[in-house]
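QUALITY CONTROL LOG
STEP: pairwise intake check
CHECKER ROLE: data steward
CRITERIA: each record must contain a sequence immediately followed by its structure tokens, with no blank fields

ENTRY 1 OF 2
RESULT FIELD BELOW
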Amino acid sequence: MDTRQLAAFCAVVERRSFSQAAERLGVTQPAVSLQVRSLEKRLGMQLLDRSGRRVEPTEAGLRLFSSAQRLLQLEEQMLDELSSESAGALAGELSIGASTGPAAVAVPLLLCEFQQHHPDLRVALEVHDTQTVVDLVANRELELGIVGAARRHRAVSFEPILEDEVILICLPDHPFAGRTVGIDEIRAETLIVMQEGAGVRQVVEDELRERGIRLLELATSLELGLQESVRSAVQAGYGITFISRTAVESDLAAGTLAEARLEGMNATREISLVRASGRVSTRAATEFVAFVRARSA
């Protein structure tokens, strides 16, 4: 039911006058008359007796008047509560999805810092491959995502927020450690790859495609899921892999893994914020996006 019609009706009953009701509501008298006539038409009954010098409610009008007043009071209370919430502390839950590279270090630190600023807010992080995160955001199962590759999708928008590097890693005693190697040398090694849908894999495939090479020409025996899986396999000595630098920075610093470079390859990728196109953001999501932008500026 249109509360504007109820407000016009109640004002007329309280003032017993269309002109005084219009003055109270700050509208014209014809506008008040139109709202009341529309309400009577919708309900199929006459609510006001206009035959005398003063406007009087009919029996049906009196019954409606008390209920309408309660409804208008509830509307005012609801608007006050919403206004108070929008101005007060952030509360509720913020659910974000992230691909494995950003989820290794950057995203958890951002979320922890953000939650410290908003202690009444519950923050939940889901970790998937890039394609799954994009699909969850597109299907509105997650409000926000942070991924390492911007995959084309009409239902989402991407906003770059950070930059990351894709590197080749091996054990410190591997012949590749600290070297720049050629593509033929990699062909002779066991190259471990991530699953389809992983952002790092997409970056590597794009780089190799520019050279006329398909990734699966180099790696056919070990496809091991996401970054943590391939990292563990390299640490155990089963081969080499391309991976996000942020995912292994602590390992490189500790000397448990070493970096190598593929000749002519300088693969960087943008870490992007993913949002569903046209979706109205919650206050928590809006605040988090502003927070991330400030950190990346």
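ENTRY 2 OF 2
RESULT FIELD BELOW
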Amino acid sequence: MNRMQRRLAALAFGSMFATISGWSVIALVGPTNPTNQTATRPDPFELARDQGNLVRQRVLDDISAGTQPSWAGTYAWSNGYVRHHLHVSVRGYFYEHGSCTGTQLISFGEVDAGADGRLALSQRLQLDRRGWSQAPPLAETDERTPSTVPMRRGHCLEPTMFSVPWGKETFLIPASLMQDFCALVTAHGPQALDHADYLRRVGSEHEGLRRQPELAGLPDVPPEFRRFLPE
């Protein structure tokens, strides 16, 4: 056997040895045990929503007891595709935004009621389909500058809301949009809510929102905003 033949034989033997060693390692380790694999992580949105549902039920119990202040209740708005529900009582609030594809956002926390229907919402947790966190907070008011145009699109839950009675109805208005609300009333009168999506108090979250609001006169806004309504 010449030098070239000996070299080829050595390479072949080395390759065979490496293959046998690899098989031995596999035999020692054994097949992958499915039970040792990390379990699928539960959806954090669904897990945290359970906590929110406890708050929701507590608030609904408060409302059904009939011992809450005049501003407490269930508020809603929907166009048939997008829906907003807010349950609020002295013990907290629960807000849910959804669409025909399901729930998109949940927020819940505490409520501090002030004078003239002012409600300060302290968010405990906000959840969306991207996950859950204590941030971002409720929309900051400086991100929404009131305009003089009596029209707007999209509803926003803010840290400060106003409960505004109007005739037999009560609306929940974001603080930064109170001037917009007054401008809308000035421009359209009782038909103002045909052009807006402010949350309106309903008997329950299942009550049909197609019912026309029963409005008469002017809304009972806080004194600081009355100058924006007609005399």
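INTAKE CHECK: passed for both entries
DESCRIPTIVE NOTE, ENTRY 2: The chain has a mean pLDDT of 74.
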